[in-house]
Design brief:
The protein contains 9 helices and 7 strands, in the order ααβαβαββαβααβααβ. The chain is an alpha/beta fold. Strands 3-2-1-4-5-7-6 form a 7-stranded mixed beta sheet, sandwiched between helices. α4 links the parallel β2 and β3. The longest helix has 13 residues. It starts with 18 loop residues before the first helix and ends with a strand.
């Protein structure tokens, strides 16, 4: 934890320690835009007030701001929020704000956003009820929230994920989301890092050292991987 972190912040095991490597991973994730196209088909964010939950160093903020009416990113880790603000300032994005706050206590006004998204941030199933309650408070009637995370039942990356976290129960997670009233679209994207060196850096950030080295040794020279994704969404 760092001075200035939001109360209740839950440390991320990857981006908090190495934001520069996580940035490489972000640049390589879904270059074809499958996720954005799916969100767009469900309504998208053009002309709307948007919340990016767990915005990290602000990677998604400029893309959201290109068509949204306004954007606010919330990030509990103060050093990442500083990076996000610097990114926004460098691009001269005047309709984007970054707050040091958590998914469960964003600090936003009631019914103040039309669209909320969280990409691989906080909403992992049982235990995230406070964050879901916060979404219900801040999203306007008729608005939509989107949560993107790994689908551990499919794809090469899903197999790797299951091997790394054997206790993870995707069936229980899916039951949780169904009980909460969320819908799901199952998508497959490509995580393409471009070079074996970048791929190795990102894999070592995502997995424990011994496990990552085993995966890298099995297929030397790999630069990317197929990645199954759950796009969860709910209208309010």
């Amino acid at each position: 934890m760092s001075a200035g972190d939001a109360d209740g912040a839950i440390a991320a095991p990857n981006i908090w320690d190495a934001p520069e490597v996580y940035e490489i991973g972000n640049r390589g994730m879904d270059r074809a835009g499958v996720l954005d196209a799916a969100i767009g088909a469900l309504g998208g964010w053009a002309g709307r007030d948007v919340l990016d939950v767990g915005c990290g160093s602000g990677f998604h903020l400029p893309r959201l701001a290109s068509s949204a009416r306004s954007v606010v990113g919330v990030e509990p880790h103060a050093p990442l929020a500083t990076l996000a603000r610097a990114r926004v300032a460098a691009l001269g994005l005047t309709d984007v704000r970054v707050r040091v706050s958590t998914a469960q206590r964003t600090g936003l006004a009631d019914r103040s956003v039309d669209v909320a998204q969280a990409r691989w941030a906080y909403f992992f199933g049982p235990g995230c009820e406070p964050g879901l309650a916060e979404l219900a408070r801040v999203v306007r009637p008729g608005g939509t929230a989107y949560v993107i995370d790994v689908d551990a039942t499919r794809s090469t990356y899903g197999e790797w994920f299951r091997g790394a976290w054997a206790s993870y129960d995707p069936v229980a997670v899916e039951r949780f989301w169904t009980r909460q009233g969320w819908l799901r679209e199952r998508l497959t994207v490509t995580w393409e890092l471009g070079t074996p060196q970048d791929f190795a850096q990102v894999l070592r950030l995502e997995f424990a050292p011994v496990y990552a080295e085993r995966l890298l040794a099995a297929e030397p020279g790999r630069t990317g991987v197929d990645y199954a994704v759950n796009l969860r969404w709910r209208r309010f």
